[in-house]
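Question: Now follow the chain.
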Amino acid sequence: MSVSIFYSAIPVESSLYQRLQTERALLLLMERLFPYGKGIFHFFEIEPAEVDEILSDVIEGHQNILGSESETTAWIDEFREEIRRTREAYPGIEDRSTMLESIARIERRLSQKLAEQQVENASERVRRLIEGVQNFAPHLSSEDYRFGMMSVPLSLVQEDARLLREIDPDTLFAEQEDEGRYYRDQFMWLRNLYLEAAERNEEILILIE
């Protein structure tokens, strides 16, 4: 089964991060808008008509969390403002994101490489850096909605970055055909995300679709 996995770094000291841990409506918007555009911090740069259509779909299915029309409008405005503030306070955060498709080959090749380097539990470690370690804010889930956002905590972002730093994308995928270059680029983007997030003490949010 083909899946798409979306990634974004998030500063743990940001008000956005703190509020996502406690406010269901904001976490709902984060999760449902996460896959669109060039990343969640670029969402409101999408064409306005498309933004309205996406938001309408989210609102229609989740009024139990977003509330009345006026409350929903207020939550969306709050979310937009948190995105703006985070971008302003943490320059470049909007570009610390990526997406993976058809992960099996990347997972297999990376697991083999780490095993060759005698990294313990290589396959498990690769799976966690690709799919996440734990649910983000699981305490906000309830019978009416189960949040699916995953995360990689800061300590593991830094640990995984140390492993990935030693792996050259051009060596891992040395094939010159288009398919080889495709997987090399996908791995390179994931590697760069971990390195940049680790350098800035950021966690990584992950959504699998």
